[in-house]
Amino acid sequence: MSVLERIRPDLAGFVPYASARRAGHRAGIRLDANEAPWLQAGDGSGLNRYPSPQPADLLAVLAGLYDVRAGQVYAGRGSDEAIDLLVRLFCRAGRDNVVTLAPTFGMYQVAASLQDVALRRVALDPEQDFALDPQRLLDLVDDDTRLVFLCSPNNPTGTDFHAEVEPLARALAGRALLVVDEAYVEFAGHAGAAGLLDRHENLAILRTLSKLHALAGARVGALLAAEPLVARIAGIAAPYPLPAPSVAAALAALAPPALARTLALRDGLLAERERVRAALAALPGIDRVWPSAGNFLLLRCHDAAATFARALAGDVLLRDVSGQPGLAGCLRASIGTRADSDALLAALAVGGAA
Ligand SMILES: *Cc1c(COP(=O)(O)O)cnc(C)c1O
């Protein structure tokens, strides 16, 4: 059975909004979309016109970047939009469920709650370095499970589950879509799971320009999946998901010179991650800093609130994740510039960390 048969049956005859640009006609004089015929003051790029729903040049560049075909790419407003669209496309409200990890990224819960869908979670054990036993995840899957979200590297633990992707995709074939959220995969030292797409039609991968590519403010992300699934997602998305300035920013960021610079910056950040990890682990108030495949570190403190406050007193904001399952005492720190890290380390060293 194809995973497409797990899409909500009531959407079988769904008719996408027929936006003016979706029709794809070309003409010099465009009177089809009720746009203003003049440019806004200071506008040099034609923002009076609606953008292409899925710009061919951006799809081609993303396909090249992720080593897939352009038809396997849906480009949208960050991965957050794709998570929401997947839940809405697959899950019957009040009936279906999705399966994920705990702790993990909070948006799976938000999207599931919005659609009135239950979220089932496999608890990861901090004492086992958050390792995943795929069978425990599969044990939560039943006839009403439509999606399995696997965040790899996992936010906020930094754990890389790449080795689990293919066995899970195989075990879930015909039952559920495995959605691998690879927001941080560029920091993990491997190419991610995109190469598995042609072998597993029930696999979808989320990528984003928000992290490594330094475009969180532009809101551009990609869903990579088999062509028919990409078409279904594009069909339920907003008519114009991508603002033209964001598309321009994405194309500029992915042009070869910018990309080469980004990759060099990444190498520096990876070295910085290991320097900060060792330095944090040596502080008296911190009893654990887990290895991370992302651009952040998870640390466990004797007193998370006190450590958070001490960092803040040094003008450094950390993320308090101590309320998440298994993360009592834990904070998450992004890897910033060397000066940022030095400010953090200095703030936590004051009088000995709490
Ligand atoms: C930051 C992050 C994203 C990125 O979301 P965007 O909407 O693309 O900015 C996706 N998944 C995880 C796990 C993240 O931490």
List the helices and strands and how they pair.
Layout: H1 56-66, E1 73-76, H2 78-90, E2 97-102, H3 107-114, E3 118-123, H4 134-138, E4 145-151, H5 162-172, E5 177-181, E6 203-208, E7 221-224, H6 227-236, H7 244-254, H8 256-281, E8 286-289, E9 296-301, H9 304-313, E10 319-320, E11 330-334, H10 338-349
Parallel strand pairs: 2-3, 2-4, 4-5, 5-6
Antiparallel strand pairs: 1-7, 6-7, 8-9, 9-11, 10-11
Bound molecules: pyridoxal-5'-phosphate.
Helical run tally: 10
CATH-defined fold name of the largest domain: Aspartate Aminotransferase, domain 2
Q: What order do the SSEs take from the amino end to the carboxyl end, as H and E?
A: HEHEHEHEHEEEHHHEEHEEH
The kinds of small molecule bound in this structure are:
pyridoxal-5'-phosphate
Q: Give the CATH superfamily of the largest domain.
A: Type I PLP-dependent aspartate aminotransferase-like (Major domain)
Key descriptive features of the protein:
single chain; 354 residues; alpha/beta; Aspartate Aminotransferase, domain 2; Aspartate Aminotransferase, domain 1; 2 domains; seven-stranded mixed β-sheet; four-stranded antiparallel β-sheet; 10 helices; 33% helix; globular; binds pyridoxal-5'-phosphate
